Amino acid sequence: MLPSPGSASNLNMNLYATKKTAAEGMLDIALFLANITHMKTVIEQGAGYRYYIAVLTLISFSLALQIVAGVLIIIIARRDVSEESNQKRLDGLNNTTTIIIFLIFVTNIFISVFGMERTGLFARMHF
């Protein structure tokens, strides 16, 4: 009897893990580019910007974490998850990457909070 098309035995875990890792990498690149653009904007505003040092520090920290996460994602993608000898190490690397991505997420929340500018419509409103 052949397994049904959606059954677990037809699932190639290595292919799934590779695609998942590639998707994480693409999202990491998109966030990396957004942070570089944000950093450029803050630098162009100059040191007179109220949270200049805080935002530059947070963006730098986020970029450093993103580089580490990117390297870990590349390492994970290059290993075969279906080999039993790799599974424990890959699980640890995956957990580490998840923690780093969470730290990037929290850091970027602070970047967004401190990076809000009073321009356009909001500049005319008095809060």
TrEMBL record:
The coiled-coil regions, if any, are: none
The GO biological-process annotations, alphabetized, read as: cell adhesion; tissue regeneration
Q: Give me the Gene Ontology terms describing cellular component.
A: membrane
A Pfam family reported for this protein in Swiss-Prot or TrEMBL: Ninjurin
Question: Where mainly located?
Answer: membrane
Q: Which UniProt keywords apply?
A: Cell adhesion, Membrane, Transmembrane, Transmembrane helix
Give the residue spans that cross the bilayer.
51-77, 97-116
Q: How does it sit in the membrane?
A: Multi-pass membrane protein
Give the UniProt subcellular location, in the record's own words: Membrane
As for family, the record states: Belongs to the ninjurin family.
Q: This protein is called what?
A: Ninjurin 2
